[in-house]
Amino acid sequence: MKPSLLPHQIKALERLHETGGKQLLNLYPGAGKTLTTITYLKELNLKNVLIIAPTSILAVWEAEAEKWEAPSVTRFAGSKVQREKIELSGWVAVGYEMFLREAKRFQKVKWDVLILDESQKIKSPTAKVSKAVRLAATAIPRRILLSGTPIVNGWGDVWSQVECVKPGSLYGNWWAFRNTHAIMPIPGVPMISGWRGVETIKAKIAPYVFTIPKEEITKNLPPLQMIDVPVELSPREMKAYAQMRDEMLMEIDGETITAANALVKVARLRQVTNGLFAFGEDISSKAEVLRDLLDTLSGQHVIIFTMYSTTSEYLAKTLKIKFHISGSTVGRDAIIESWKREGGALIGTSAMSTGLNLQQSAFVIQIEPSWTQAEEEQRIGRAWRTGQSKQVTVYNLLAKGTIDYTVRKLIAKKGKIAVELAEIKELL
So where are the chain's domains? Predict the structure, then answer.
């Protein structure tokens, strides 16, 4: 099948040719980055292609290569004995963690191109997987990074990714970049509160990062409707929430809690609003609202996202949701394919917020607001993407009088929640 590329995909393809396949394509989730890349590989007839991607989306590369009549993709996975039998030639796809385990073996192969899908996975400069990928990249002539959200926590996220595209382009090493641009308010404490010289950073990365404005991509998509659904917690839920919140405020005021520990406690507080502690009640308040929503959307494909595996497990069990994916789910590809055929609700965590084509659904439900705008865009982008023909409606369940509303307000204002006690206190 010969693809018909959209205008933004043609622009991205031209950029790859102009730069010799050395580029980070920063395109909104669902913009068709995989198709654009496959088209580039086919036009150059590249033989040995190494694809590193989250394990959950390796199947996407297999399916897309077959759909567009590209060389078949060999998935590098399985037991040690099974992996030893896999020939590292042609188009090979491997998960980030597996690549780290087998990096030396991959480095022995002469690859024509390296593709990093969801390249924000190597955003941490000092992480072992980031170091292994950057080392491998130095020996591969073409390096294509793909991400809809390359910056999640701040401008420091770009260093490792751009370093992979063009080694030495950002001050030569991470520490020089950090010392030049990071704002660290407490002497001797490596806590970054912001970034200075942002315009300089943008100028330095411009040759290596190709960005098309979100509006240019989404203008060709059907309308997107966001609906906030207020949830009234039961008296027992509200009492438990208030007690936990007040205890946290006392700890913060008494300076007996660190920012890191506070975030753990905030997560527990958010889980209270989700119904983690139903206190013997038949059903939690959010579960009841979700049940009513699913009854209304009966017969439709629906995607449900939550940040917490405990929440997804509780809701899947309580509401008898057939299709459930968590970080440890075995056979997720088969689950997704069954959901596509049968319809109904599919519930999961961040494990399914990247790389999956789920445009069979025109309905997305968020059990709670995400910590970052980037993650929310990834969630919505599973349905609101190239190939979607219907209006997409996103329902946001927000527990009244709780952290849900303050998180949503802060994310809309700042893009993400900072790991600072002052901001955590603001959340409460």
Answer: 7-217, 224-427
**What's the CATH class of domain 7-217?**
alpha beta
H or E element in which residue 147 lies = strand 142-147
Q: Please report the DSSP string for 39-88 in residue order.
A: HHHHHHT---EEEEE-GGGHHHHHHHHHHTTPPPEEE--S-HHHHHT---
The reply to whether 224-427 shares the fold of 7-217 is yes
Q: What is the pTM of this model?
A: 0.77
- Tokens matching residue 300: 């439709």
Q: Three-class SS string for 82-93?
A: HHHCCCCCCEEE
The number of angstroms, rounded, from the C-alpha of 427 to the middle of its chain's C-alpha atoms is: 23
pLDDT tens digits, 243-287: 888 887 777 776 666 666 777 778 888 888 887 665 455 688 999
Longest Cα separation, the chain: 65
Beta-sheet strands, E only, within 186-290: 194-195, 209-211, 224-231
Distance, CA of 27 to CA of 11 (rounded, Å) = 11
CATH number attached to the domain at 224-427: 3.40.50.300
- Token look-up 């013997």 returns 280
* Model confidence pLDDT, tens digit, residues 51-63: 999 887 888 899 8
- Render 357-417 in DSSP notation, one character per residue: --TT-SEEEESS--SBHHHHHHHHHTTSSTT--S-EEEEEEEETTSHHHHHHHHHHHHSB-
